[in-house]
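Re: the request from the purification team.
They wanted to know what the chain is likely to look like in 3D before they choose a buffer screen. I agreed to run a prediction and write the result into the notebook, where they can find it.
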Amino acid sequence: MRRALTPIVLVTLAIVSGAARGAEAPASPEDLFTQASAAYAEGARLLSTDPSGAAASLRRSAALYEQIISGSPATPGRRSVPLYYDLGNAYLLSGQTGRAVLNFRRAEVLMPLSEAVQANLTVARQKIAPDDATEDGTQRSSLLLLEAVPASIRFAVFAGTFALAWLLAARRLLGGPRRPARGMIAAAAVVSLIAGASLVPRELRLRQTAADAVVIAAEVTARKGPDDVAYEASPEKPIKGGTEVRLIESRGPWALVRLPDASQAWLPATAIERVQAP
């Protein structure tokens, strides 16, 4: 009787052992990337018809991309421009602007001249543009729209119209039967000025503060000191997720940062994350 049961026991143990090994084996980064890409595509497809389903798929996509980047005890993490770029897109579509800006910035560190990264980073930054209406609001909005055009094209337009304006001006000064009209010279100069101004976009002004961290919370109240009871809010309006800041000092659960307007404020340390990935 015992001999008759032995093969059955062995087969059962083999099946159980194989199942255990299969359960313990982590998915490869390639498999995770395929799953993340599929979840992202599903989320993008559902955006207009099923927002809640889209949000769930996009969250799953982001979690899978994060898993690839962070790695596991058996598999080292991977960091690349496509990973950070795709992760930023997943966060952007799911409405997590702060984490979108953070990951686009991380992609930018690895490939500063990537036009795709710059374009999507600009889109994310536009979502946190100040709400305050100003006299130059129309001009600023126009420049933000121009930033959607690749920088290489804007530079080519600037250089070409700048040279054209000078050539036309020189030809007019030299005289002759076919002197260029002043309006033509002025038009070339205006186009050159607009294209040149668009090359100094909002992100470059932010970098003057050497921003090395991003607010990842949806919004957070800044304080004049490292305590949310003893110190009043400063500024009064909450800081939006995606705002890029410069980390000055860490003190326990608080961080002193320099805001884009060069003012300083204390934020909960959990509300920000450094661009330079740990």
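For the purification team: The chain has ten helices and seven strands.
Please add any questions underneath this entry.
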